[in-house]
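Researcher: Structure prediction, please.
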Amino acid sequence: MRVKLLLSLTLFAMSISAQVVKDYNPAIQRTTNLQYFKPVENRLFTGDCMPYYHEGTFYIYWLLDEGHHAGLGGLGGHQWALSTSKDLVEWKHYPVAVGIDEDWEKSICTGSVIADKGKFYAFYSTRVQDNDGKVHEQLSYAMSEDGGVSFAKQAPNPFYYAPEECVSRDFRDPKVFKDDKGAYHLFISGYKKEPELEGFGGYLVHLISTNLKDWKEVTSPLTGQVATPECSDYFHWNGWYYLLYSIGGDTYYVKSRKPYGPWEYPTTQAFVESWASVYKTAEYKDNRRIAVAYMPCRSNNKDFDGPIWGGNMLLREVVQEPDGTLNTKFLSESLPAMTLIRMPEVEIPSDSKTVSYSNGKLTLNSPNGTSVASLSELPVNYRITMKIKPLTNYDEIGLFVRATDSRDRGYKVELNANKESAFIYNTGINTVKNLRGEITLDLILKDEFIDMNINGKRSIINRLPEKKGHKLFFFLKNGSAEIKDIKISQWSNDIW
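Model: Predicted structure follows.
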């Protein structure tokens, strides 16, 4: 173990009683369908999520946030909360699993868990502040003997400090795993003090151990990133090795047939959703894989306000393609029961010569402009699915949801085959493939969330709190297409 200058730092002794969450109540939280979950207490939010699967139980450890990272002087004051499920439908919430116990602990940062020889080990970074007000991050770990529910911190605490070449403020988010030879590994987010090219110092520190206590540094699996690669994830699935990391909240991945590369950068990054931060994944039964992220809030709860730290939980199912590429789709178990409702009459402008509706099929034929049809008297919250079949090349096709009328047209949901893009109002995703063939579109509107999946492979979500109109417009610009199998559902109960 390295002995660093940080060992001699004298840490501030601040009272934490008034700035650390003490009254999170797991007994009053929603226990069914965890999609879009946050604690019911208004001031509390969900932060980074750390899923783990072990012997039939799916664990989600998550950062319990108060005031959007404002705790303990803006250093976070985060602690690990825990929610578990046997079926991804019914959930149980627990008291804080890894908490702040000492004055010098300013935040229990993101990390990971491993079960080994009947015990659970939680690895994380502790954020600290020295006498000069400088912030540092250093590795700590805790052990559980009750199946990962409550952890006791282990000595020495901390047990590892940033290597000499690493900025001590950017040394966090350890990912622990065990290789097929029985050795333990940690990938830790870092940033080099003197990168080969200025601005490209982000890398992962790689530690290895035989006993989960004594660690040595080995070759990094990832270097030269434009920022600290946060909250890394690593797994082996059907012959492919995957390394995930987040830059500015967006989660990227690389893949390889070998454990530590050389890595192949995929042609599409399905985890990059602007309002889904720091995806991490865990295996699940039947060779499935589940991804969990958090959705930041908007700063003043307005449609064009920027993101602030902490918000709601988001679950996706990961889809693996034959070439190893990863995609995502809605996780069916995370959604509540829904009931089909009668679709309102399709309204077509009286003078339209480009739109027709017959036998459940809406045809839009507008090579010279834009075609429009609409539905009225929709609920605010609903789910709508459809199949879209382009008949020619087109500029844009999509919907306006939560509209009031043609002037207050609500939120634009757009697909664009030429640009391989999809948008929900003011956020979008790129490299969306197969938008020229038949498209299966699945859209969920729930409170401030508009959540969309395309072809069971690409997902995008946005947080839009302002508009609540009851009208929907279909539209097509410069092209021809058919829309069929339109189905609208409402929640069967009010628990979601």
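Model: Residues 342 and 488 are 7 Å apart (CA to CA).
Researcher: Thanks, that helps.
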